[in-house]
Amino acid sequence: MVRMNVLADALESINNAEKRGKCQVLIRPCSKVTVRFLTVMMKHGYIGEFEIIGDRRAGKVVVNLTGRLNKCGVISPRFDVQLKHLEKWQNNLLPFRQFGFIVFTTSAGIMDHEEARRKHAGGKSWDSLSKDVEHAYK
Questions:
Q1: Phi first, then psi: what are they for 93, rounded to 5°?
Q2: Does residue 136 surpass a pLDDT of 50?
Q3: Does 1 map to a domain?
Q4: What pLDDT score was predicted for residue 134?
């Protein structure tokens, strides 16, 4: 069976494991894009550390979950977002103004919407992340 979107499958696995209260999840197959997205998620505290297990095929990743992820998912179709329209996309995709991130692929790499604004880089929207509101107030 052919996987059409490896990143969407990985994020769905993380969502399902979070909902069931698991502390770890195994993601396979793994790509470089998936690893970079996990790095952005880890930087913002949505997931714990992760370990890449390199078997000579597509690879696997074991992700430690923190219980702070409310929802994450791939934005499909991927929209071109200019810097001047970033505020509009932020209002449409995120549940609240301070909670959550939109992840973009730009010419400068994969980054969240705040970093894209600082670096003055637009790009394609790939993912949206939101934290649990209860944990955000702590």
A1: -100, -30
A2: no
A3: no
A4: 39
> Per-residue pLDDT averaged across 8-19, rounded?
93
Cα 3 to Cα 6, 26, 92, 113, distances in angstroms: 6, 16, 29, 28
Please report whether residue 108 resides in a domain. Answer: yes
Say if residue 59 is in the same domain as residue 80: no
Provide the pLDDT for residue 13.
Answer: 94
For residue 55, what is the domain's CATH number?
Answer: 3.30.1370.30
> Is this structure's pTM higher than 0.85?
no
Task: State how many domains the chain has.
Answer: 2
Q: How many residues does the chain have?
A: 138
Could you give the angle at the alpha carbon of 75 between the alpha carbons of 101 and 87, nearest 5°? 45
**From the DSSP assignment, how many helices (H) and strands (E) are in the chain?**
5, 8
